[in-house]
Structure formats: C-alpha cells, structure tokens
Amino acid sequence: MKAISIIIVDDHEIVREGLKLTLQREPDFDVIGEASGGKELLELIRTKQPNVILLDERMPEERGIEICRTLTKLYPEIKTIILTAYAEQEDYIVQAMMAGAKGFLIKNVEIFALQRAIRAVVRGETVIDSQVAACIVNKLKDVPNQHETPSPLTEQQIAIARFVAKGLTNREIAEQLYLSENTIKFHIQNIMRKMEVHNRIVLVAKLLEKGII
C-alpha cells in the first residue's frame, strides 16, 4: 500500500521536527516536506504534492484559514488538517471548515489521535478534536432554542449524530454501535442530506439549534 504523503507547516522548526520524527515511525506515513509559512508551502507543492497537510493555525505572515482557502481553491484533492493551541474558537472552526479544512485538532493531541485523524481524512472523513467539539456543543446548548421542530431523523441516526457531536470518526462510531464503517458512512450521508448541510460542524450546530440532540 502506498504511504500517505504529508507536509508539515509551522513557523517553529522544533515543532516541525517533532511532528516529523513522530509520524515517520509509522510505515504508512511519509513526511515529504516542511514549510514555515504559506508562501514556502505553495512553492513546495509545485514539486511535491502531498495527500495531507498539517497546518498551524497561527503564523506571523498569515492565518492558517487563509492558507487553507488558497489550498482548497488550487489543490482541492489535498486534505488539510489545521492544528490550533486553543479549543474555544467556535466561529473560527466553522470558518475553517467552510474554507475547506478536513480536520481541526488541538496541538497537544495525543499522537495516536493525530495518526488516526490523518488516516481518516484520507478516507474522506472530516475530523474534529473532541475538545473542540465539546466547546462547540456547550456553547450552542447555552443558546435558547426557539426553533425546536419534530426530528426528521430516525432513532439510530440521532444516536450516530450524538457521536458525531463528540468528535468521533466513522470508524470509532462503528466500533461503538457494532456496525460496519460503510454503514456509518451511509447513515451520516443521509443525515447530512436530511439536514441540508455538507460538513460535520454545521451539522452539529443545526441539530442543536433544532433541539434534535
């Protein structure tokens, strides 16, 4: 099986080196490059197109979300995971997903969770750190619900949606419910279709707004 090619983008060399050393231990990962900012990254991609980019949220010249937006426009096939030092950035997280990010993780995430997230976005999933998901859910729960309507979802779909709100990947949800990963993927696609959304963050926000979860 071909290794997942990765580029790490962070303005701190020590962070890049630490991530590189850790990820290179996995036989299915290949760190093919590093960059200290958006300009250097775009130059690097001209010769080395990765499967995944690990992108620092805050850098001196431009924010990760702006770089992500450019990447989505020029290289939509590349999966971008944004790394942040702070979980309490609900509005920014939604903007990042709308800009095309496929993952949003806290920088102190456990290494196995980062590895799992990289593999998940390559499979086509969107991955949200559980701390980030919890912050979004807690904030939205504090907002008075004025739009509660009968749920268009089945009980099983609601159960799956609650796991999505906790930040679990399709594979983790499948393990919790003793279903196949393809079955979970099918259900989530149907949930998004019913709720008329295209990513998990907006899905969770809409489900909470309507009082479904």
TrEMBL record:
<keyword id="KW-0597">Phosphoprotein</keyword>
<keyword id="KW-0805">Transcription regulation</keyword>
<keyword id="KW-0238">DNA-binding</keyword>
<dbReference type="InterPro" id="IPR058245">
    <property type="entry name" value="NreC/VraR/RcsB-like_REC"/>
</dbReference>
<dbReference type="InterPro" id="IPR016032">
    <property type="entry name" value="Sig_transdc_resp-reg_C-effctor"/>
</dbReference>
<dbReference type="GO" id="GO:0000160">
    <property type="term" value="P:phosphorelay signal transduction system"/>
</dbReference>
<comment type="function">
    <text>May play the central regulatory role in sporulation. It may be an element of the effector pathway responsible for the activation of sporulation genes in response to nutritional stress. Spo0A may act in concert with spo0H (a sigma factor) to control the expression of some genes that are critical to the sporulation process.</text>
</comment>
<feature type="domain" description="HTH luxR-type">
    <location>
        <begin position="146"/>
        <end position="211"/>
    </location>
</feature>
<dbReference type="InterPro" id="IPR039420">
    <property type="entry name" value="WalR-like"/>
</dbReference>
<protein>
    <recommendedName>
        <fullName>Stage 0 sporulation protein A homolog</fullName>
    </recommendedName>
</protein>
<dbReference type="InterPro" id="IPR000792">
    <property type="entry name" value="Tscrpt_reg_LuxR_C"/>
</dbReference>
<dbReference type="GO" id="GO:0003677">
    <property type="term" value="F:DNA binding"/>
</dbReference>
<dbReference type="Pfam" id="PF00072">
    <property type="entry name" value="Response_reg"/>
</dbReference>
<feature type="modified residue" description="4-aspartylphosphate">
    <location>
        <position position="56"/>
    </location>
</feature>
<feature type="domain" description="Response regulatory">
    <location>
        <begin position="5"/>
        <end position="122"/>
    </location>
</feature>
<dbReference type="InterPro" id="IPR011006">
    <property type="entry name" value="CheY-like_superfamily"/>
</dbReference>
<dbReference type="InterPro" id="IPR001789">
    <property type="entry name" value="Sig_transdc_resp-reg_receiver"/>
</dbReference>
<dbReference type="GO" id="GO:0006355">
    <property type="term" value="P:regulation of DNA-templated transcription"/>
</dbReference>
<keyword id="KW-0804">Transcription</keyword>
<dbReference type="Pfam" id="PF00196">
    <property type="entry name" value="GerE"/>
</dbReference>
